[in-house]
Amino acid sequence: MLTWFRKKMKTIMIVVAVVFAGSMFYGLGYQGLKGGESGSSKVLAKVNGREIDPMRYQELVNRVAQNFGTNLSPSDMAMVDNLALGQTIDFTLMKQAAEKKVKVSGAEIDAALNSVMQQQKIPSKKELENALKRIGLSLGQFRDFIKGDILVQKLQTKMQEEIRVTPDDLREVRASHILITTEAEAKNILQELRQGADFAALAKKYSRDPGSAAKGGDLGYFSAGNMVEAFEKAAFALKPGETSGIIKTPFGYHILKVTDSRLRKFPGVADKDIEAAALREKQEKTFRRWYSEVRSQAKVEIVNPVLKGHDLRYKGQTAAAVEEYKKAIVQNPVNPYIHIYLGDTYMSMGRRDLALAEYENAVKVEGGNPDLYIVLGRVYEGIGERTLAADQYRKASLIAGDNKDFHAKLLKLFQNLKRPAEVAREQSEIRRLEKKERFEKELTGGK
Prior knowledge:
Elements: H1 2-9, H2 13-26, E1 45-47, E2 50-51, H3 54-68, H4 76-101, H5 106-119, H6 125-134, H7 139-161, E3 171-180, H8 183-194, H9 199-206, H10 210-213, E4 218-223, H11 229-237, E5 243-249, E6 252-263, H12 274-297, E7 300-302, H13 305-314, H14 318-331, H15 336-348, H16 352-365, H17 370-382, H18 386-399, H19 404-417, H20 420-443
Antiparallel strand pairs: 1-2, 1-7, 3-4, 3-6, 5-6
């Protein structure tokens, strides 16, 4: 989740608004919780008692779905929904924190809105309102959406500007340590060291750190921000050759010896650019620590049963996920995808009979969807029912229409099944559609 989020924070806030406008105005095909589940009247989840923005969630669903391209299957939609929910929760937590620390003016929102209109070639506010109305949004809702992006961007900028590079950030030390579980034993070892005992020998004999004890306690080189605070503070305060006193950390009691100190190296970064690289790294680590604390203190409640089912399923709690999907089917009986999710969950539990029944139910609910026939066909193929699988693929072909990519997918499926007649038919369909594309291109002057 945070990988996506950190990348998003690097974008210019106006660009974010433009990208959103493009996806909402012109559509990206996939609509998250199909069958109306993602409507604004439905609560998807709550973060610290506040409902997440369904529009934000849908925009992120579109973005995640784009990454799958034409390979997005009904079964993949569970992952798309789950990833988008996690990203929406990340964004919501950031926005809540931003609301306490930064402000956004109406002029800033206006500037972003004007940029959206220019990029999307919308000539007037009236045209913008009409475009938004077509996708079920008001201008006020869109302004709030843009405000959220600017808030989060401002918080990110503020956090970055408060971080400074220190001399310790530009160097790395090499150290050895002896880890002891009791303070009394640590005192005895420290006394031996002060009497001239060899550090490496005592580390091999007494240290409780299996990773370094055999190497005489050697931890190798490390930079600031990679060790627990007390340990790191002591390491960077020592000069090469010096030994610390007893350092207490959550792991036990340490005695530390620094053996070297040098300028840090970043792969592919020249020495003159080390300070900038160190700053970027420190900003990244600071954000991670900050967000980890914010997330650990947050109260997150997933309300929508489909999304809750996804969450439980990906956590390995399949029995609980089954119950949530069943609730979702009762609430939304016209959504075939919930049957797919339930079928996939049963399949992961080894309940093939129950899974097959749900895949068949999905086809019954929405018989005009060729994707669902492919799902069912692949299940039949997986259990050795190749004739039944071919029947489902043929049905998918009949309703695929002029979708050339879909016929190309069916061609491969029939080839795998070694069905020459069906292979020939799909090849013929693809040639027909290619001819149609060429004809349409000629009519438009090659545009």
